[in-house]
## 1
Amino acid sequence: EIRGGMVVVSNNAGLGTGAGGTIITNGGTLDISGRNLQYEPITVSGSGVGGNGAIINNGAGQQNATRWITLANDTIVAANNRWDIRGTGGAGSFNGELNLNGFTLTKLGAAQMSIVDSTATNAGNIVAQGGILAITRSKVEGPGFIDVGAATLQIENSSTGYLAKPLIFNQGTLRMGGNSFVLDSAITNVGGVTVQVGTGLTLTLSNSITGNGWLFKANSNGTLRLTQPSTYTGGTTNALGTIFIGHDQAAGSGVIALTGSGVNLASDDTTPHILANDLIVGQNLTIGHLVNTGSLTFQNSVSIANGIRAIRINSDVIWEGPVGDGAISDKRGPGNLVFKGIANFNLDSPFELEEGTVTIDGGSLTNIDAFRIMCTNVNGVARLVITNGGSLVLTKAGANLRPGYSPGGDATATNIVDIAGLVRMAVGGSGGLVSIGANSARSIVNLFAGGVLETRQVNHAANTSEFNFDGGTLKASEGNLGSTFMQGLTLATIRDGGAIIDTAGFDITIGQPLVANGTGGLAKNGAGVLRLTGANSYTGPTVVNEGLLSVASSQSGGGAFTVAANAALRFSAVPGVTLNTPQITLGGDVLEFDLGANVTPAVPLVSAAAWSAPGAITINILGTNILGTNFVAGQAIALADFGTVLPTTTLGTLPTGVSGTLSNDNDNAVLYLVVTGSARALAWGGELNSIWDINNSVNWTNLATGLWDVYLETPAFGDRVLFDDRAANLTVDVATDVKPVEMAVNSTKNYSIGGAGKITGSVTLGKYGSGALELTSANSYTGGTLLGAGRLNVGHGEALGSGALTLNGGVTLGTAGGAQVITNSLSFGSGSGNIFIDTTGGDLNLTGPLALGAGLELQKTGPNTLKFGPGNISVIGSGMGLDVLNGTVVLDGAAFTNENDGVRLQADGADVSMVRITNGGIWSIGTVGGNPNLVLGSTANKTGSNHVHLSSGKIVFGLSGVQLLVANTANTIGTVVQDGGEITWVGSTNVVRGVALGAAAGAQAQYHLNG
């Protein structure tokens, strides 16, 4: 009996051999000192010498230290070095014993103390205040508890035995190794517990976890099963290995954070579970299991933790809450990843679906970059499903939907997209496309009822590519990209649900044959034009609800056509082929026929067994007749076979340069177009003389025959005429009024056209090529003038007829023969480069409205005057500046606005540049932005004189207009004379404003204020 002090055992029999045993009381301490005392029963109580333990081991570690320990009262022991309570019979013998006897055993020390092949019997508690408390193949009976605190409870090699006492952790560790184990103890998680499970092993927690602490699984690659409802609130983190979920509340109420690369979270069997926990996906990882296939539903938020993750979904995972804070780069695994909430991936990465399924089920998924369906498995399947109410949105200008993608996808796989919701992609760059197919993999898009696919184009990327309409809507997000909106697919079918195509105001062409795979038809919705140019064979009806539908006569499905009142239908000729239909029902009064090049005029485009319309049908004709040979006067062209009864028809529009009438073959109910006139294509030569007359002077080359010819007219129009570089005579005398159906001057040479006659009719005069065109006499054509390139000299105030003058970038508008007044409106067309107005040939007065801009510079050259007005002529320049290089610009009551560029006077040498504002004219500078100035002498060392003369009206510096700079650069001359009117600044004051005089070396600046 040890009643005080310390007894150090020096050999294994130091305490005898079991007769009566050893009793430790009253502050005594037994130091095992590394000896085997298994044959000596020990009864112990108290805290030992100095409270450092009634049993300690200051010797070497001893796994056979004791066999029987009985507590006589609360007891403290210490493991400075390892020592065990171990039975001698091996696994299943339980012949060692720790008899708690209703008391508390407290373990001190950083080393391990083990209970092996033993029974911890009777009520009582174990408290570990440091180191490792290990339990091996033992039975730990209740009641009582084990308080691990911040220490480690280690369950190792426990092929037999159990642990029934409740456990308490406060930032401690639960470690298991050697064998898998089912832990029946309830756990109170005060401040957190770290769980370590050996590789290849499973620790099953078959009781609940309570408390405010966290659960952190780390340091080993084993499996943790959480099978019971728990209420701990600190969250669950898996940094390594697998966690199986066996109950909807198994992970308590905190966040589940998957932070380790390759970790797994799954159901523990085939039972589905619904988790209210938030989820953090912090690494590339796996969710779900190939055997334990119960689905996991996350009701709340999912965070990708500001990363781009590759995830494997081995069984179904449903995300009902918001998903974001990162992006998914790869989805692998055979399971279905379902989005029911709002997923917003805010990092730029393609989403690649490499295996299994992704379903957007009533939720939305927004990705910056592309979405690629690209199965990587041999003979595998990858599928994207968007249900009714779901949406996929790709926001990057360059992002595409790619069913089938290379490199990476397997050639034997199948990639499928099922759309019953919305797919929308940004328009711009090379994006906004549906590109189907890759390698030799089969790739399919199914568009079901309720589905809307918005795209710029559906194209064939490679190999087997299929598109199936089954009730959904294909909607254009842009006009034709390249040649067609859909073409080149291996197969495009229309199933029972039919096809809906919404042109959304665009002009699109589908050259892909649409073949029958059921009874469905086609509905055309939206403003704009849909051209079906393929040999379609779908069998259902065709309905035109809005806009215009053009159908090739090669369509063979046999369905009826119905056209709404505000829509239109066009049949487009395929040579030698007639479209057959049982019924054409027109809600409106227009039917169109596009004859193309009119190759087979005897074959009607359409044959309708029956038809109906609310009244007489207006027949519009389209076709190509550039050289005047496709439509020949006197020719009868079969348009439509109307079965037994012809409708009442009237002739509407015809191709440019074609005149004709409608003719009815009442016996056969066939409608014909009879051509009465056809414009030919002529090029001016002028070999005989300079006269342009009608059917007289042989001054033209017929571009169809190559022979000399005369110019001809019908009552409606004349021939097409071209003035180019082949001409021998560049002076054209218009001897009589002429009305060419088209007129183009496209030459590097300089033409002069005028005379006693006028150019009349609705023609548009187009000026192209680098040469100059001078119009010397009055004309009355109404189609306007396009100055597309080179120079146009106006030699008469009515030379441009009554239409608008359109100026492209880089052109010059000039005068000839003295001062001219042009009343036509002027506007900017296209292209880049400055627009020059040259008054060398005389003053130019513009009295019509001007709308110029797009970042161009309007440059005034020549010594004479350019005047705007009189009257309130609006001269608007969005992004346009004005450079006065020579001569005078007068605002005679006109309003001239420079929105975000300035006005510069920069004469050189003996030249004089001047701006005069009279009659209440207003010059507004900087109404939008850009901080522009009015500058007199803007280019250094250009020594001409620059003047502004304000006698009435205003110069207004707007929101960003800054300064009036006089002689602003070195050696320039600038003078301002203000006899009246005002110069004012309005709007922003965040810039330096006012008048600056002579702000550079050698500059000469004057400002005369005369009342």
## 2
Amino acid sequence: MPKAPAPAKPKKGDHVFLVDGSSYIFRAYWQSMNQDAKYNRRSDGLPTGAVRMFCIMLWRILAEMKPEERPTHLAVVFDKSEKTFRTEIYPDYKAHRPDPPDDLRPQFPLIRDAVRAFDLPCIEMAGYEADDLIATYVREACDAGARVTIVASDKDLMQLVSDCVIMYDTMKDRHIGIPEVIEKFGVPPNKVIDVQALIGDSTDNVPGVPGIGPKTAAELIKQYDDLETVLLRASEIKQEKRRQALIDNADKARLSKQLVTLDDHVKLEVPLADLAVHEPDYKRLVAFLKAMEFTTLVRRVAEACGIDASEIEADEAVKAGAIPLRRDADMAAVAASEPVQAAVAEPASLPLTGGRMNRKPVAKSGEAGPKPGDFSGVPQAVVEARTQAAHKTGIDRSRYEIVRDAKRLKQWVARAQDLGVVAIDTETSTLDPMQATLCGFSLAVAPNEACYVPLAHRVGGEKGSLFAGDLAPEQMSEPDALAALKPLLEDRGVLKIGQNLKFDWQIFALRGIELGPYDDTMLMSYVLDAGRSDHGLDPLSRRYFDHTTLDYNEVTKVGKSRLPFESVEIAKAAEYAAEDADVTLRLWHVLKPRLVAEGMSTVYETLERPLLAVLARMERRGISIDPQVLSRMSGDFAQRAGALEAEIKELAGGPLNPGSTKQVSDFLFGKMQLPGGKKTKTGAWSTSASVLDELAEAGHELPQRILDWRQITKLKSTYTDALPGFVNPTTHRVHTSYALASTTTGRLSSSEPNLQNIPIRTEEGRKIRRAFIADPGTKLVSADYSQIELRLLAEIADIPALRKAFRDVFF
């Protein structure tokens, strides 16, 4: 890094970097959630994830960029307070923004300490937002002939982009210049504030003109050049609703322009010359990084600067000045008193590593309890507090919203991106993702703050009609909706949460969207309670919140009155779908810390969750079958079943239906009086396979023939007749569904069709397997473990005799 021992005004050829610290703090916090969570807290429990990401960003700018791109001047700019000149002219400006996550609050001063440890200016001024200070530095730097890079992605700063100014999103490694601004707003940077004034901003509570979206706003500004001309000539506009909206809301538009226009003539307290970059005190920087326990960054800085990090002690003042996490009882009380609205913005604020082997033992009676600074019990307190808070915050379906246009959907997307976490659920026409119509989707960002976006609901044609009916009015088209949604679903800085998310993952993947990062509450529940079978949304809602969700059968009806979901009234569908997303988000807030408290985070994060996308891709790929092989086998089985029926009739001395349990039981244990019969709970004679096996082993021929007939007809009905019906008409492959959370042993199961239990021990079963074919040039390999649980037991328990048995018998 170049040295500048004295202040130096920028000149032509210099490169000024201005970091929007206030917005980057939140992005760093959410981004840290996508990293290995063990790095998000210090050993004493202090949350540090955002600080770590912030330090990494600064180091990359200062030391790891190409030499010609490195800054000559750099400052990190923060908001000083919420009261600014904008709130004086419009008190509702940014009035509804939620409180920051609890785990982020103690990191605000630490991030400022980090900036100072890098020996960089940390700039903030009362009465002004960081954006205004940045605008002023930009003007001065450009006037001096320097080029400027604004480290941010905030749309409000795009008005500053010019021939000498670009923006840089470090998290996406993306530069934003004039072409990117035009792509986003439809106008060049110098017209952005006019467009923003028309469309408003729900995030900052900028009113704008109702009914005017980005596309319309851009068209108006391109036609009339600026906002004032649009308003003065509004009476000329042909579209009546648009014309009237502009006339009625002219004052709001002018106010909005005031709110979005950045002040680039702030009387700066720190002159531009003082932003000149110089080498920091590397020992002081390493001492700070050590105190924060950023081991990897300590090594990188030390190696780059040629110093021995082992000789530098951690900064004791930083360690001592940090805010310690509260003890269990205090934490529980605070968490319980915090509104759930605030808690919603905390996706991964707890240490999420360590399996059962890493859990600390509970102190025995008479032993010393946890030492000061040992916060291993805090996660359980959070679980209890969040569960209690969830009980207090009832579900209010009347607050859910139906989103019918792109403008409103983009506002929901922006809200989710601001918070960094969103629950999502899809509603489809069928449970087969390969052939499903996407009827709509729901989003939830906070308790009772959820919406439903209908896409393909129809009116008429229900109740068994041969016709599908017409599309219901006021719905977005699927392409428009997904175009607005895709940036959110693929945003690596926003965590997507779902219940049985593999299905939703497939729905979006088939439409060109790869959803991530994500959490799945069904998988979380399964990891925590694998011995239970009720991991569906409805039972989880009853278990954790004592709330009964809307039943699917209640929404779609039953029997002959059953409606396909696309025929469900939109208002009713919205209640059902939005509630699913709302409950999913609430479950995540309870289950995530419970994973930590019970030491199961590693199992979930390294085994179960990564498998979701793998299985989804396997399902999409599918497997080929040879219908002709199955058809020939089906015919052969039919002949064999017919021959067996004739043989059974002959052995019985008359007609006997082998498929009738009553006829078989009456004949074997009534007429023939065979011994060894067993009765069921209803008092009838059992004809189960085990009973018939015992009779066959005793030398009775008829029971054996009945067993043979049952086996042949089951193979025919279950496989040779049924499998061709599962062939997808487009891919010509079979697409089964793998269940991640259905067995207590952790094994996968398969359904629609069940490919797990295709028999192999009989010749007929092996023939059926031959109908599954590999692509040209490849082979299908079927493998299974023998006694895997006992093998693991032998290894873990280190029982020599048991290990020897497996070696001698199976190898």
